[in-house]
Design brief:
Keywords: Cytoplasm, Methyltransferase, rRNA processing, S-adenosyl-L-methionine, Transferase. This protein has about 230 residues and is an alpha/beta fold. It has ten helices and seven strands. It is globular. The termini are far apart.
Length: about 230
């Protein structure tokens, strides 16, 4: 292993650690100039970004269909694709310049990953990416909005994995009603990478248990079904 790659990376990425190293190099070379990361992040790319992202793979069932919402620099999507090649992964990103970056990285690393330009709340995106097993998100939005945007992309009992900070439990409690209205279950906070990372990754896990409520309190799916029966 070349100098500068932490030992934890061997554990997390296994035989594909060289791909992770190349991704780190790409971020070092282009990240600041292209507005993907801040200058202070260069010295902590592995711990704070690559490993921090990749360890949430322990929450993903084998061969899951995954959408990374607001993928940005490719976090957590690219590290997940490296660590777990069994996943069917889509990176969802609204900004054209970041979409270009993601496509360049995928080509450079020869990853089997799809990039879609758009936002999770857009109708065509929801139709195209419906019935996912897992949605991931890192530093995208508070749980209230994230649940409303992301839960409709999931199949019944699919999982929203939102990477959060120390206030994760407080945010989950604060936004519990909004999460339920969006079709989410109670939610829980989990730690990933315990034993591998000095600071484990905090993830809010929310299961999609129902369709979202409309403003009148009805469930959207039920109302659609009644409408279709009346045709």
């Amino acid at each position: 292993m070349t100098a500068g790659v932490p030992e934890a990376a061997r554990v997390v990425f296994g035989e594909r650690v060289e791909l992770a190293e190349r991704f780190a190099e790409l971020l070092q070379e282009h990240g600041i100039r292209r507005g993907l990361i801040g200058p202070r992040e260069l010295d902590r790319l592995w711990e704070r970004h690559l490993l921090n992202s990749a360890v949430i793979a322990e929450l993903l069932p084998p061969e899951s269909r995954v959408v990374d919402v607001g993928s940005g620099a490719g976090l957590p999507g690219i590290p997940l694709a490296i660590a777990r090649p069994d996943l069917t992964l889509t990176l969802l990103e609204p900004m054209a310049r970041r979409v270009t970056w993601l496509q360049e990285v995928i080509t450079e690393l020869a990853l089997t990953v799809e990039v879609v330009r758009g936002r999770a709340e857009e109708g065509p995106v929801r139709e195209r990416l419906a019935d996912q097993d897992v949605v991931t998100a890192r530093a995208v939005a508070p749980m209230e909005r994230l649940a409303k945007w992301s839960l409709p992309l999931l199949r019944q009992n699919g999982l929203l994995l939102a990477m959060k900070g120390e206030s994760a439990a407080e945010e989950l409690e604060r936004d519990a009603a909004a999460i339920a209205a969006a079709g989410g279950g109670r939610g829980e906070v989990k730690s990933c990478g315990v034993g591998a990372l000095e600071v484990p990754t905090t993830v809010v896990v929310v299961e999609r248990v129902a369709a979202a409520r409309t403003s009148s309190g009805r469930r959207r799916d039920a109302r659609r079904a009644r409408k279709e029966r009346g045709r």
